[in-house]
Structure formats: structure tokens, C-alpha cells
Write a structure and sequence with these properties.
Number of helices: 6
Bound molecules: heme C
Strand content: under 5%
Structural class: mainly alpha
Largest sheet: 2 strands, antiparallel
Number of strands: 2
Length: 142
């Protein structure tokens, strides 16, 4: 299926997470519980849901050759969380961010909003040098 379809359907409430950001087992859980999706109903007609599911499974972190997918998979050790932001490698990379930049930041609020800080998130690029925190500016690590 084309990416445009995915972007439209799964990018209407939040950033359209690339398939390589979660393992297949996580996408399966997410796609089988869309009626209760983090407190919202995100159900789609069956045909559309199946199309989205195959797209996610084909590009899942288990099969992706990207560096980030490999790091996520290694840190997961077989776990399949519902959130990217619960993956151990993710948690480790973001643990220096103070609350005032994330939860208490009205322009961010949640780690789910990858694109609020990662300026090239839409291209699947999450390098720390392309991070700009709303209200705080570029992320410079010493
Ligand atoms: C009706 C709105 C809505 C739609 C449509 C929707 N989502 Fe979500 N999604 C949410 C909400 C709300 C959250 C929780 C955000 C938060 O915690 O800040 C979420 C969170 C997520 C997360 C976890 C992000 C993280 O790591 O914290 C994933 C993965 C996800 N959605 C995938 C999908 C996929 C795949 C689709 C398309 C099938 C989809 N969503 C469609 C509302 C939606
Ligand atoms: C509040 C801003 C913010 C949000 C929201 C955020 N990040 Fe980050 N992210 C950062 C910062 C800052 C770093 C660099 C941390 C460091 O190097 O100390 C980072 C680092 C990363 C890295 C490591 C980069 C590498 O080269 O290994 C990945 C991967 C990543 N983020 C993915 C994501 C994804 C996926 C999401 C959404 C689910 C997300 N981030 C949400 C700020 C954010």
C-alpha cells in the first residue's frame, strides 16, 4: 500500500510513526485493540485496517535494516510494548530531558509527539543533532 494512505489514517491524531519504530508483535497488539486505543476509539473499516496492518508488519523493526530499529530490537529482548516511548533504548536516550521540556511544556506534553522535537521525524530521521525543543531551542549535549 502507499505511504500516503497510512499517513492520512494513522497521522490524523498524531505523528504517523514509521513501521520500523516497533516490532511486529507490538503492531499486532495495537491493530487488534483500535477500539480502545490509548483511551480513544481509532477503529477503521476492516479492509483499511488490514491494509494498514500489512504495511506495518512488512516494515516492522524485526525486519527493518535501519540503525534505530536494530537498537530498539536489541534493547527490547523479546518484549512488545504498545508504546515506542516505553522501549528501553528510547527511555535511556530521553532520560536527561527535564519535565519542563516535555510534560509541562504546552507545545509538547508527551513523548508521543516525536515531531514536536525531532525536526526531521517525518523522514524517519531522529538524530540528536536535528532536535529542537519548542520554547527551548536546539538540544546541545555536553
Ligand atoms: C482518534 C485519534 C487516533 C488515531 C486515529 C490513531 N491514534 Fe494512535 N494514539 C492516539 C492517542 C490519544 C495516543 C496517546 C498519545 C499520548 O500518550 O500522548 C496514541 C498513541 C499511539 C502510539 C504510542 C506512541 C508512543 O510511543 O507513546 C502508537 C504506536 C500509535 N498511537 C499508533 C497508531 C496507529 C498505527 C494508528 C492507525 C491505525 C493510530 N495510532 C491512529 C490517538 C489516535
Ligand atoms: C521533548 C522532545 C522530544 C520528543 C517528544 C521525542 N524526542 Fe527523541 N530525542 C530527544 C532528544 C533531546 C534526544 C537526544 C538525547 C541525547 O542525546 O541526550 C533524542 C534522541 C532520540 C533518539 C536517539 C537518536 C540516535 O541517534 O540514537 C531516537 C531514536 C529518538 N529520539 C526517537 C524518538 C521518537 C521515535 C519519538 C516519538 C515516539 C521521540 N524521539 C520523541 C527529544 C525528543
Amino acid at each position: 500500500m502507499d505511504n500516503e494512505f497510512y499517513l492520512g489514517e494513522c497521522g490524523s491524531c498524531h505523528f504517523a510513526y514509521q513501521p520500523g519504530l516497533l516490532p511486529a508483535a507490538s503492531w499486532k497488539k495495537i491493530m487488534s485493540s483500535l477500539d480502545d486505543h490509548f483511551g480513544e476509539n481509532a477503529e477503521f473499516p476492516e479492509d483499511d485496517a488490514n491494509r494498514i496492518k500489512s504495511y506495518l508488519l512488512e516494515g516492522a523493526a524485526d525486519y527493518s535494516v535501519s540503525r534505530i530499529s536494530a537498537k530498539f530490537m536489541r534493547s527490547l529482548r523479546g518484549e512488545a510494548p504498545l508504546r515506542i516511548s516505553e522501549i528501553p533504548y528510547f527511555v535511556k536516550e530521553h532520560d536527561e530531558l527535564p519535565r519542563k521540556m516535555v510534560r509541562d511544556n504546552s507545545e509538547v506534553k508527551s513523548f508521543s509527539r516525536c515531531d514536536a522535537c525531532h525536526t526531521d521525524a517525518g523522514k524517519g530521521f531522529f538524530d540528536e543533532h536535528a532536535v529542537k525543543i519548542p520554547g527551548f531551542g536546539r538540544w546541545e549535549e555536553e
